[in-house]
Amino acid sequence: MTPEDRKCVLCPAYGQEPVYWEHAHACFPCRSRMKRHLEDIAEQWPQLDPTPSGGAGERISGSREAPIGARVDVLDQVVALSPFAEGMIHDPFRDQVGERPAAAVLDAIAKEWLEVRRSRGLREHRPVPTVVNLCAWLADRLDWACERLPDSIGDNADEVRQLCGRLHALNGNSRSRDPEPLPATPCKKCGHIALVSVEGQVVCTNCSQYSGSFADLLATAITEATKETA
């Protein structure tokens, strides 16, 4: 494996300079972060509530339609997947643009992965295009995608990150629970560049050395992840 193969292609999606890792194309903190984003999406999406606060509909600037009595930004995300949901959402007069539904974003990534998997002899069916099902399908194949799709997995991670942030914001929860990688900072014990910061506490995702109250939880998660890849 060349040094270029060891460079993490996910780091830029999270605003970090690429780090070099033992495994191809994606470091452990970034893989964990993308998986957590998928889990968060599956958790946050069912909590979306299109009911406007106070019972008053949102007034959309530039629209010639009357207020519909619902949060339009939430409706953008909960609309069922259909051929009309492949691009941006427009009103009948095409003067109001919304975000792609969550299911459409995830389904597009799943289609890309599925096409490559089928081309390499893996016999799989397209997953049922619901948000929760797509998140589970993608999470189950994340390690494969990180190793086999270095040219696109970074863009996929960025799309998932943005979608996760939108859903958290729509639910009134903008606080991030993600570990922040500390690039180019080696662990003092094992020497690996594998440190992450969680609410001010630092842990090494390679040797599990840590400081702070989140240590036991993170160490257990790392141990479980190691067993799964063994």
| Largest sheet: spatial strand order | 3-4-5
Structural class by SSE content: mainly alpha
- The whole-number mean of residue pLDDT values reads 74
> How large, in whole angstroms, is the Cα Rg?
20 Å
Largest sheet: 3 strands, antiparallel
Tell me about this structure.
With 230 residues, the protein is mainly α. The chain has two domains: 146 residues, no CATH class; 52 residues, no CATH class. Helices cover 40% and strands 6% of the residues. The chain is built from seven helices and five strands; from the N terminus they run H-H-E-E-H-H-H-H-E-E-E-H. Strands 3-4-5 form a three-stranded antiparallel β-sheet, with no helix packed on it. The longest helix has 18 residues. The chain is globular, with a radius of gyration of 20 Å. The two termini are 20 Å apart. The relative contact order is 0.15. About 14% of the residues have low confidence.
Features of the shown structure:
230 residues; mainly alpha; 2 domains; 3-stranded antiparallel beta sheet; 6% strand; globular
